[in-house]
Specification:
Elements lengths: L4 H4 L4 E5 L7 E11 L5 E11 L5 E3 L5 E4 L11 E3 L7 E9 L12 E10 L5 E4 L2 E5 L5 E4 L18 E5 L3 E2 L5 E3 L13 E3 L7
Parallel strand pairs: 5-10
Antiparallel strand pairs: 1-2, 2-3, 4-6, 7-8, 8-9, 8-10, 11-12, 12-13, 14-15
The structure holds calcium ion (CA) (2 copies).
One calcium ion binds next to loops.
Length: 204
Amino acid sequence: MKRTIAQLSLMPYTDDDQPWRMCGQRIITRTWSLVDDCSNSLEQTQIITVIDDIDPELVGCPADVTIACNDPMPVPPVVTATDNCDMSPVVSGPVSVSGQTNDGSCSDYTYDVTLTWTATDARRNTAPCAPVVSVQDLIIPVITLTGPDTVDLCVGDSYSDMGATADDDCFGDITADIIVDNPVDVNTPGTYMVTYNVSDPLRK
Ligand SMILES: [Ca+2]
Ligand SMILES: [Ca+2]
């Protein structure tokens, strides 16, 4: 009796299933054994290669964060990874790249720091994680009067403004940047308001 192709394909087979290798692939050698009614046999092997084409996933990657210029830089957390095939994907990093300058510009004080972790599985599929720490000037300067809050004068008295100082959390002493609006006229009776205004260099 002749068997049909469909019937032959139902014959049992054996697999030599090699585990996942360092190169991230699994090879199955499938051997088909056919025996007809007269004990004539035939073996045919089939090589099945299974590859890993799915990237690993990082666990514990921190989110972007904004901090003030005098805040301490956050301590990088421990970042791990999982993978669909590789039980021990490699995590490298963090690699820190800072945009901070040292040339007297605003980016000396406000800048981004990018921390990059990379997970790599045995197949060399990779997944990056690159949160950004943004260092910003979040606090306005403080003005301190050098003289008293109130000055009483008689018409004709001599008067000179005693001024003020200004300090910023990022830029330090910015007294020189104070703009004074002084409408005092000692020859005209009245109440005058002297105004001091300063902006830190980022808000000019
Ligand atoms: Ca994978
Ligand atoms: Ca400031």
